[in-house]
Amino acid sequence: SQQGEEDPQALSIQEGENATMNCSYKTSINNLQWYRQNSGRGLVHLILIRSNEREKHSGRLRVTLDTSKKSSSLLITASRAADTASYFCATDHTGTASKLTFGTGTRLQVTL
Amino acid sequence: GAGVSQTPSNKVTEKGKYVELRCDPISGHTALYWYRQSLGQGPEFLIYFQGTGAADDSGLPNDRFFAVRPEGSVSTLKIQRTERGDSAVYLCASRLAGGTGELFFGEGSRLTVL
Q1: CA distance A100 to A3
Q2: Nearest to A101 by CA among A46, A38, A42, A24
Q3: What is the DSSP letter of B8?
Q4: What residues of chain B have any CB closer than 8 angstroms to a CB in chain A?
Q5: What angle do CA B91, B96, B98 make, to 5 degrees?
Q6: pLDDT for A78 beyond 80
């Protein structure tokens, strides 16, 4: 079963614009991670945010976490065509990373 | 190795046949995961190994699916009596024990059951 749901399912923007995708989950977490997947490839880890953190930055990425609403958002600033990919949130409910539960993903298309 | 290696990258088989998919994790990574991903969906957890033992196999859909990791490194996912519904990309990931929780994924094995 997939714990997280991502919104929107698909997003199309122009290069230079910001992209925001959201993830909601159902039960309490230890941490939440975001991954990127290029078409036909494996997943690549982007960023991890712990349950006691509210915001985290990495380069052009900004992640927020609201545990009271059981939701997270990923913001990609100044998007580039190379950011075109699917983005997934993954939740760790165990604290041991013994099972990450992935969401359904947001397909981002960045056009020139 | 430099990354997680999965073989074969593509496998086409007939309904009812037996299939083995191999995963070679990053050297030194004691945790290993198998996930299954259908088209347009997120990865679905199958099984997690810590060392040689399966610490959590709650995601295996039925007893046709089995995975081993006899020496705590390479793992093999075995599917018996394949069905068309088994068609998917099977992803393997590994993680360093005590690490940040980040999983390193292979490129996947695409299984097509005709």
Answers
A1: 10
A2: A24
A3: -
A4: 4, 31, 33, 35, 41-45, 48, 50, 55-56, 58-59, 91, 93, 95, 100-108
A5: 130
A6: yes
